[in-house]
Design brief:
The protein has two helices and no strands. The protein is an all-alpha fold. The protein has one domain. Helix 1 packs antiparallel against helix 2. The longest helix is centred in the middle third of the chain and has 78 residues. It starts with a helix and ends with a helix. It holds the Pfam family YtxH. It comes from Flavobacterium crassostreae.
């Protein structure tokens, strides 16, 4: 995701630079008007980049918060399942211990 954003920003900046260069070469207006147009185009590109950055930032925040909630839920499920499994193992071992105690008591007699 970050790589696509970087490529998009690079493409926009490259396009703006090329457009400004061509605009200067073929400008029918005076230099002051051309500089004003370039400045205006720069401000528009800056606003566009800011909007894209804000949108991307919100998307990333949303995905991270969703992922965090999913991860917390998965962790809680895992702990719960392990707790149940642990209880099963303890019960099994207690039963085996009781059987061994009975066998040992028979041998002691």
């Amino acid at each position: 995701m970050a790589n696509n954003s970087g490529n998009t920003i690079l493409a926009i900046l490259t396009g703006a630079a090329i457009g400004a260069g061509i605009g200067i070469l073929f400008a029918p207006d005076k230099g002051s008007k051309t500089r004003g147009k370039i400045k205006e185009g720069y401000k528009d590109a800056q606003k566009d980049l800011q909007k894209k950055y804000e949108t991307l930032s919100e998307e990333v925040k949303t995905k991270l918060s969703t992922t965090k909630v999913d991860l917390e839920g998965s962790y809680e499920d895992l702990v719960s399942n392990m707790s149940h499994k642990t209880e099963d193992v303890i019960i099994f071992l207690e039963n085996k211990l009781a059987e061994l105690k009975d066998k040992n008591a028979k041998f002691q007699r």
